[in-house]
Amino acid sequence: MLTDGRLNVPQPAVIQEGSDVKLPFVLVGDQAFSLTDKILRPYKGHFLSDTKKIFNYRLCKHGDLLSAQSAFSATNGEYFTGS
């Protein structure tokens, strides 16, 4: 779906008023996804540059946030009480 254009990912857009820089809409994935211009995934390996480590950290933080939002949505907005 993603590679053949059926997912309807929006075109790049300006996200800051007064800027002419257009940023693409992307999906956050892991190593299970093939790398495309619509997928961001962490760098793999143990000996990464500081820049790549920071990228991975920030990307994983967003992934954690998205997972939490998905879990919240899946419960119709109700938190699990553990009972």
Give a topology summary.
Blueprint: E1 13-14, E2 22-23, E3 27-28, E4 39-40, H1 50-74
Parallel strand pairs: 3-4
Antiparallel strand pairs: 1-2
> How far apart are the first and last residues' alpha carbons, in Å?
40 Å
| Total DSSP helices | 1
- Flag low-confidence runs: none
Largest sheet properties: 2 strands, antiparallel
Short description:
By secondary structure, this protein is an alpha+beta fold. The chain contains 1 helix and 4 strands; from the N terminus they run ββββα.
Structural write-up:
This protein has 1 helix and 4 strands; from the N terminus they run ββββα. With 83 residues, the protein is of the alpha+beta class. The protein has one domain. The strands form 2 sheets. A two-stranded antiparallel sheet has the order 1-2. Strands 3-4 form a two-stranded parallel sheet. Strand 1 and strand 2 form a beta hairpin. The protein starts with 12 loop residues before the first strand and ends in a 9-residue tail after the last helix. The mean pLDDT is 76.
List keywords for this structure.
83 residues, alpha+beta, two-stranded antiparallel ribbon, 1 helix, flat
